[in-house]
Amino acid sequence: MPTTLILGAGLAGLTAARELTQQGHEVLIFDKGRGVGGRLATRRIATGRADHGAQYFSARSADFQALTQEMRAAGVVHDWHIEQSDPASFQHPRYVGTNGMSSIAKFLAQNLDVQTGKRAVTVQQDAQSWSVTFDDGQTITGDSLIVTLPAPQALALWQESGLTLSAGEKSALEAIHYEPCIALMLQLSQPGNVPKPGGLKLPPDSPVAWIADNQQKGISPDVPTLTLHASNTFSQQHVDDTNLNALIPELIAAVSDYIGPATIVDQQIHRWRYSNATERYSEPFLAASTPAPLLFGGDGFGQGNVEGAFLSGLAMARFV
C-alpha cells in the first residue's frame, strides 16, 4: 500500500488526505500547530467563541458543493446570509461552520492519521521515497510527499534541508505572495452594534478592514463576541511587533461606533503572517521534477481562499 506524507493540516492537506485514504492509500499528515485547520480557526475567548481566521466560504465548483451539502446535512455548516454593497458580486450563498470554522477541519480530519505539534525540520529524498525529520527527532518515510505549508515556509524548509528545486519551481514558489493580518477577538457583556447579519467591511482608510459579530453568525449563540481583522496596511506595519497587545486600543477605537469599550469582558489578539495569498501560482498545485512524487499546494495555488485550498488538495490527491 503506497504511503503519502502530508505537511500541513489545513484545508488543502486534510482534503488531500481524505481523498487519498478513500482511494486506499496510507496517509500520514503532520502539523506544527496544536490542532487542525490552519486558518479555519476558531478560538475560545472566556465563555464564548470567535472565528479569527477565515470568516465564511462560498461553494461554486461541483466537488466543493457536494462536500458543502454533506457538511450541511451533518450540521457542520450553515448558511450565512451576509450582504454586500455590490449585489452583482454576491451570486453564491455564504456558509460558516456551525460551531466555528474549525469545525469544518475537525469534520474532515475524522478517521485520518493526523499528528499535531510536529514541526518538520528537514526533508531528505532518495530515488523512491521521502523522509521527513521532525523537531522531536522522529524521522518518517513515505513514497510521496505533499507540502501545503505557505510557500515561504516550504522554501525555508528546503533550504534548511540542503535540497534544491529546479530554477522554474523555485521561481514559481517565490512568486507566491501573502498579506499578513492581525486579528482581534473580543467578548462583550452585551451585544455590539454591528448591523445584521453580523459582518461588515469598513472604509479603506480604517485600521480595521472587517468586523464580525460571532453571535449573529451563530457560532457563539449564548455569548456576544466580535472579531476584528486589521487592514492590510495596518497589519503590514505591525506584523513584526513584539507586543501585539499594545495595538488593541487603536483597533478598538477604530470601531467605536460598533463597540462600547466598557462592554469588553475579554480580549485576545493573533498574528496571521500568511493570511491572504494575493499573488498565487496559476494551477491548483505544483508537481516538482523529482524521482519520488513531490507536490506543493494550498491556498496560494489556483483560485485561492477556502474553496481554492479544497480544490488544490483534491487535485493533488487525484494526481498522486
From TrEMBL:
Pfam families reported for this sequence: Amino_oxidase, NAD_binding_8
PANTHER family associated with the record: FAD/NAD(P)-BINDING OXIDOREDUCTASE FAMILY PROTEIN (PTHR16128), FAD_NAD(P)-BINDING OXIDOREDUCTASE FAMILY PROTEIN (PTHR16128:SF5)
Protein name as annotated: FAD-dependent oxidoreductase
Domain called Amine oxidase: residue spans: 91-318
Organism of origin: Fibrivirga algicola
TM region positions: none
Gene3D superfamilies attached to this UniProt entry: 3.90.660.10, FAD/NAD(P)-binding domain
